[in-house]
Amino acid sequence: MVQLFYHSAAIQGIGNEVMNMVMNESAENYLETILVLTHRLGNVRSVDIAHEMNFKKPSVSVAMKNLRENGYITVNADGHIHLTESGLAVAEKIYERHTILSSWLIMLGVDPRIAAEDACKIEHDVSNESFDAIKKHINASMKLSDHS
Questions:
Q1: Cα separation of 68 and 62, whole Å?
Q2: Is pLDDT of 38 > 90?
Q3: pLDDT at residue 5 is higher than 50
C-alpha cells in the first residue's frame, strides 16, 4: 500500500493522479489475467476471472464494463471475453514483465512465491528504460552461463 504525504492545498490534484495510477494498475492486472486464462481455458468468462483473482463477481463485472468501454476487451453473446488488439498489447507487456522479473528474482535466490508476488508489484511501476536494462542484463547473464 502506498502512503502519500502532501499539503492540503494539493489534495485534489494528487488524489486524481493516484486514482488514475490505481485504475491503470487494476486494468493491467485484469488484462494480464484474461491473457493467462485465455491460454489456459480457451474461452474466458467473468466468473473465471473472479475465481482466478479471488474477487467477487460484481467487482469483476464493473471492471469488464470499464475495459469494454475503453476498447480493451470485447464480450460476445455467450459472455466470452476477448482481448482487443490494444488489450492484448497491454496484457502481453505486463505478462512479459511479470515472467522476466519473477525469473530474475528466483535466479537471485528469492523464494518463487515471494518472487511472483514482488514481480506483480514491480511490473506496473518500473519504467520502460529500467525494465529494458534489466532484461538486457538477464539476457547477457544467461548467455555467459551458457558458455560456462
A1: 10
A2: yes
A3: no
